[in-house]
Amino acid sequence: MIEKNVDVLVIGAGAAGLGAAIGAAREGVSEVVIVERDERSGGILNQCIHNGFGLHYFREELSGPEYAERVKKIVQQYPNINVKVEQYVHQIDYRRKEVVVASTEGITVYKPKSLVVATGARERPMGGILVPGTRPAGVFTAGVAQRFVNLENRLPGKRAIIVGSGDIGLIMARRLTLEGVEVVAVVERMPYPGGLERNIRQCLKDFNIPLYLSHTVVGIYGKERLEEVIIAQLDESYKPIPGTEKKFKVDTLVLSVGLIPQSTLFKDFLKIDPWTKGIVTSSSGRSSLNWIFAAGNCTVIYDLVDWVTEEGSVAGKFAAMYVRNNWEPAKFFVEKGQNVGILFPSWYEEGTNLNLYLRVKKPIAEGTIRIKQRNNLLYSKKHLNMLPSEMISIKIPESKIGSGDIIVEVLE
Amino acid sequence: MKIAVIGAGAVGSLIARELSRYDVEVIIIEKNTDVGMGVTKANSAIVHAGYDDEPGTVRSKFCVPGNALYTELAKDLQFDLKRIGSLVLAFRDEEVRVLEELYKRGENNNVPGLEIWDRDKILSYEPNINPEVIAALWAPTAGITEPWMVAIAAVENAMDNGAQLYLETEVIEIVTIDGRVRKVVTNKGEFEVDAVVNAAGMYADEIAKMAGADYVPLHPRKGEYILLDKQEFSGFVKSILFPTPSLLGKGTLVTPTVDGGILVGPTAVDMPPEREFREDTSTTFEGFEALMSKALKMTPLIDFRASIKTFAGLRPESPQKDFLVGKTNIFGFFNAMAMRSPGLTAAPAIAKFMIEEIQESMGETLRPKLDFKPVREKIKKYADLPPTIWDEEIKRDPLAGKMICFCNKVTEREILEAIKKGARTIDGVKFRTRAMFGSCQGGFCMHRIMKILARELGVDMADIKLRSDKSFILMGQVRK
After folding, report:
1. CATH node for A125-257
2. CB A340: neighbour CB atoms within 10 A?
């Protein structure tokens, strides 16, 4: 067993973790180590072979693997970043600031001066949505189906139904269709889609795949392999309406019903949002403990990977500043006002820009987003067609911000 | 003497293992792809204390001794057993009277350590119980285990002591001559035997009928369950919580699993006896709703958003709601049937009894083997070792440091051990190692496990099945 001192340790080498390492290295710390549990860095980008990445961060449209390669190239420019794969974080002793990591080389106990958590998210599994019926083969989460098709060169089935209209579900509807799998329907329990508008258009409408809004799966049948899926329409209280059942003979069900931030390793010592399971952070990426930072989908589920990398580099930068001079400014609450469902970050730290990400609680055709600090109006702007599925990003430079709690609200 | 045990569930497996102590030839016949995958796979996994079995029933005869035998059994067969104790909760005065009856019945059945707890004591021990609770019956000997592991471990040990296992082998006919068992005919061939032990779970009545032997008619009683994520709910309750029992049975319980999750269930719905219902483990909306409302009554803070798995199991129920165990009208044919609750608890005691019953009714004394090996070695769980020891293990075998299942911390070494011990399917690995049993339910690791299985078995990834032969996961290639 070896012990290793390091300035900044990053957990996870996906879009957020790589960004964090870059941010920390730029700030000029002596060593940044990224530990990644998978066989290679890049995270979930490696299996997202579709386009649509990089428009913000690289100003051009890239596929997931291309985006990952670009970020990795930047990482390679910094000799003080050490990316280690097949490293499993087993335990964290937050009092002693020790991170126990297992790998085929043995157990390493890292003693970082600062830690950046970039553990991403996991998909909600079938058992998470209480669907009645049997438990045959042929039921996949969208990410697993995507992995089989894009990385393992395997088809999960021949005739599929997609449950949940999250972005990965929509992308998989198109991907499976292109590979000759018949996608009979996408089913969404909410009255509006869960994914981005552009994905509804490019992945469903362009391929004539029907989208059933306000519908849910009421039965999954098949003894060994999936044979039949029954859906039904939901009333306003989300109860199935008898008589509206539709049966689909399918051998495959692809589930895209949400991502859950991977935060449980930290739940005993970091503040976790009890509703979203995201690690609660400030505008610097700092968690509720001064030496631990977090970024990416383990804090809040983002719409765009560009934002993930950007917030990763913010967290990395301030983690490095904490290493260099114990940087820890005053912080203020960032509070949800009316109609705000999801809001990131939870605190504002003096000396940082405020990169706000929010989702409205319900669809709002026309509304004003207003951000106030005491009597100081930081932002007020009309927004059209706001949907819970579309994350809104607002940047307020440090120069405009004073001290005091900040409130974010959406006025109808 | 050659004895066939039909059914490799917890009951059949433990009987086979007990038989393997003696100088007899033991064959285990199982229709499924793996052991412990029928009735045994899906139940509450409770080792009951034994206070609720009415005196005079066969259940009451075997439950308390079975419970006691579990301590040594868990040590020898190295499966997890946690005696976390159970609480039967009373919320009304009438229910308190039922608790008192149970307490008396328990004393009659020689259940050790029973206590009646008052509200303060209950809430200080289990703060998440509904504060409207008035009283509870505490039974410290009640415990939790993994029922499939009991069967898997018992079969491994029986085989280590000479027993033969025949999987995917379905009994078609049992030949008797002059009221005496002669032959078991299966889809995989015939076995000449001197005796048959019928532990065929949901099908034990049909097996008995094949031999023209005594039986009770069985029907499935369905029980649905919801499993909550240990990463969210570990430690929510410390003990097994039962409502006060009613005519319908022990009721829906809230219990930790040995793995640290929280299990809510079962429901109890009597199904028709026809064959299709004996395989119907589908879950229902009504079931989920019943489970949620019942669990919320006992533990109002339980949150079903942390659900990661729903499933249903079938209990072989009979009109008299009791086991049928022992010799029959057919010489050499023995029943261990209608093993409803507390079948899992009673199984070790029934296994011991079966040896006596066979000797007595067949007039033969079985000779103990001198070289019987009582201990079965479990698959080492590396992540549970102290880091320094784990480090040494990795130095010996690097795969002990290669994490495959991230949620439940299962290394490649453990997966390889499971395959060496007989896992051939995704479920085979899952139930032996707990890989894919965690928060992501295989989202991150199923493809990795499929690849390891394919590599070790020398087959293509597409040949790896979920459980049975037709439960294939992949359907062809994207590009040739």
Report:
1. 3.50.50.60
2. 18
Contact A102 B390 (CB under 8 A): yes
Tens-digit pLDDT profile for residues A50-103: 999 999 999 999 999 999 999 999 999 999 999 999 999 999 999 999 999 999
d(CA A162, CA A170): 8
Contact call for A90 and B383, based on CB within 8 A: yes
The CA distance from B361 to the nearest CA of chain A, in Å, is 41
Q: Please say whether the beta carbons of A2 and A106 come within 8 A.
A: yes
Cis ω for the linkage preceding A345 (within 30 of 0): yes
| Closest CA of chain A from B302, distance in Å | 13
CB B180 within 8 A of CB B316: no
Q: Which of B304, B391, B398 sits opposite A107 (nearest CB)?
A: B391
Check CB contact under 8 Å for B469 and A86. Answer: no
Q: How many CB pairs under 8 A join A and B?
A: 150
* A110, A148, A266, best to mutate vs chain B, most B CBs in 10 Å: A148
Report residue B131 as tokens. 């504060």
User: How far is the alpha carbon of A317 from chain B, nearest alpha carbon, in Å?
Assistant: 29
- Please state the pTM of the whole predicted model: 0.95
Within 8 A of B383 by CB-CB distance, chain A residues are: 90, 102
pLDDT greater than 80 at residue B43: yes
- Residue A107 is nearest to which of B390, B402, B465, comparing CB atoms? B390
Beta carbons of A105 and B401 less than 8 Å apart: yes
CB contact under 8 A, A225 and B472: yes
- CA–CA dist A61, A64 (Å, integer): 10
For A330-412, CATH gives: 2.60.40
Q: Which of A134, A152, A153 sits opposite B282 (nearest CB)?
A: A134
Say how far residue A404 (Cα) sits from the centre of its chain.
29
CB contact under 8 A, A138 and B465: no
CA distance B126 to B238: 7
ipTM of the complex model: 0.96
pLDDT digits (tens, 9 = 90+) for A21-46: 999 999 989 999 999 999 999 999 99
Q: Where are the domains of chain A?
A: 1-123+258-328, 125-257, 330-412
pLDDT band at B120 (very low <50, low <70, confident <90, very high): very high
CATH of A1-123+258-328, one of 3.50.50.60, 1.20.1260.10, 3.40.50.720, 3.30.1490.100: 3.50.50.60
pLDDT at residue number B249? 74
CA distances from A50 to A53, A64, B464, B480 (A): 8, 7, 28, 21
